[in-house]
């Protein structure tokens, strides 16, 4: 039987996987217990699932994941308290049901801002109090940077931002900090953190918040990467840059797509993927884990955005860009949970 991934890296960082509750059972559950020492919810802890209606919290699915982590002595990441996607509309409607972003009257805008910040506080507080003894790492905000934002600072102009400026970020971190367990860490999570423009926007924001005393412990790097992009140097520079602020780094959503962006052309089925692609992928995995291990004191956890090739969000992308046909294969276990060349390359 294949040796546990987590054991191979236990001196450097945690090895995690993103999961849906149904994956806790059966073979995926067994693979999880054997190879990983950290888990995160792929979807069920996002705002739309946790508080679909104001004041109506739904913890049922999230609780299953928390219980599994507890029973199997695994670390738990929480993804995500605040995000612009998978968030219900009610957050951004005023008491009369009007869209707060459309408000032009300065007095009413001020009132709306207060209302939304109160909602942020309630959302964060309710969740953090419930899970404070279980969660080790919190994604407090996700994807607040947008390279193309018209403000030129890369601040994503989501409704959160349009209504509160960057105060929603501050309030989210400050509220979380008031209630989290004493060893828990608070992260700002984003994708493409290796790309210089985006990295620097994120750096400037984080530095500014830290200067204001906002309690940020680390940066989550999603790492949805490809066979040839980004470069190892870009990855290394980004980890170092945030470490220079005294922050921890976590790799939070790792997958290595076989495809470029958009993912065209894609192989139509798993069987159609030639072995040579898996070998290239193994080489890539080998290089990035060598980098992670070398920077081990700056990286506390490496989480894959899934377990095995039978379940990956990348299939949706491959299909979307390929007229409904396309299969990706981003992990180190294949569609039957067997080890791929990438598994052996990172165990070496
Ligand atoms: O639950 C419904 C189901 O009832 C319905 O039949 C089905 C029909 O499409 O949709 C199901 O919901 C889907 C959900 O995943 C659960 O499978 C949503 O349509 C789908 O949009 C959603 O996608 C998730 C995506 O975030 C949402 O933006 C992916 O699974 C999830 O992997 C992805 O994760 C994000 C991270 O949170 C943040 N970073 C990027 C990453 C990849 O996009």
From TrEMBL:
<comment type="similarity">
    <text>Belongs to the glycosyl hydrolase 10 (cellulase F) family.</text>
</comment>
<dbReference type="InterPro" id="IPR017853">
    <property type="entry name" value="GH"/>
</dbReference>
<keyword id="KW-0732">Signal</keyword>
<dbReference type="InterPro" id="IPR001000">
    <property type="entry name" value="GH10_dom"/>
</dbReference>
<protein>
    <recommendedName>
        <fullName>Beta-xylanase</fullName>
        <ecNumber>3.2.1.8</ecNumber>
    </recommendedName>
</protein>
<dbReference type="GO" id="GO:0045493">
    <property type="term" value="P:xylan catabolic process"/>
</dbReference>
<keyword id="KW-0378">Hydrolase</keyword>
<comment type="pathway">
    <text>Glycan degradation; xylan degradation.</text>
</comment>
<keyword id="KW-0858">Xylan degradation</keyword>
<dbReference type="InterPro" id="IPR031158">
    <property type="entry name" value="GH10_AS"/>
</dbReference>
<dbReference type="GO" id="GO:0031176">
    <property type="term" value="F:endo-1,4-beta-xylanase activity"/>
</dbReference>
<keyword id="KW-0624">Polysaccharide degradation</keyword>
<dbReference type="InterPro" id="IPR044846">
    <property type="entry name" value="GH10"/>
</dbReference>
<keyword id="KW-0326">Glycosidase</keyword>
<dbReference type="Pfam" id="PF00331">
    <property type="entry name" value="Glyco_hydro_10"/>
</dbReference>
<feature type="active site" description="Nucleophile">
    <location>
        <position position="253"/>
    </location>
</feature>
<feature type="domain" description="GH10">
    <location>
        <begin position="1"/>
        <end position="348"/>
    </location>
</feature>
<keyword id="KW-0119">Carbohydrate metabolism</keyword>
């Amino acid at each position: 039987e294949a040796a546990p991934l987590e054991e191979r890296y236990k001196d450097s960082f945690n090895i995690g996987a993103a999961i849906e509750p149904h994956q806790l059972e059966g073979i995926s559950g067994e693979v999880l217990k054997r190879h990983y020492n950290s888990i995160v919810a792929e979807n069920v802890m996002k705002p739309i699932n946790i508080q679909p209606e104001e004041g109506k919290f739904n913890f049922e699915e999230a609780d299953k994941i928390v219980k599994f982590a507890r029973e199997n002595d695994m670390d738990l990441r929480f993804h995500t308290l605040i995000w612009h996607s998978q968030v219900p509309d009610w957050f951004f409607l005023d008491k009369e049901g009007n869209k707060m972003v459309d408000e032009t009257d300065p007095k009413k805008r001020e009132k709306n801002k207060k209302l939304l910040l109160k909602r942020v506080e309630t959302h964060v507080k309710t969740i953090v109090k419930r899970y404070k003894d279980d969660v080790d790492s919190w994604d407090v905000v996700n994807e607040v940077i947008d390279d193309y934002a018209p403000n030129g600072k890369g601040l994503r102009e989501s409704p959160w931002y349009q209504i509160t400026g960057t105060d929603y970020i501050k309030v989210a971190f400050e509220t979380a900090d008031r209630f989290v367990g004493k060893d828990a860490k608070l992260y700002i999570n984003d994708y493409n953190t290796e790309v210089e423009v985006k990295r620097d926007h994120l750096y400037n924001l984080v530095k500014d918040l830290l200067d204001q005393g906002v309690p940020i412990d680390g940066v989550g790097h999603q790492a949805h990467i490809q066979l040839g992009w980004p470069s190892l140097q870009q990855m290394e520079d980004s980890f170092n840059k945030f470490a220079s602020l005294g922050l921890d780094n976590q790799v939070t959503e790792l997958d290595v797509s076989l495809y470029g962006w958009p993912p065209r052309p894609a192989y139509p089925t798993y069987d159609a993927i030639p072995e040579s692609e898996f070998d290239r992928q193994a080489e890539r995995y080998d290089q990035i884990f060598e980098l992670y291990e070398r920077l081990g004191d700056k990286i506390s956890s490496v989480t894959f955005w899934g377990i095995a090739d039978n379940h990956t969000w990348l299939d949706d992308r491959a299909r979307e860009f390929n007229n409904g046909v396309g299969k990706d294969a981003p992990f180190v276990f294949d569609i039957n949970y067997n080890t791929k060349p990438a598994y052996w390359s990172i165990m070496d």
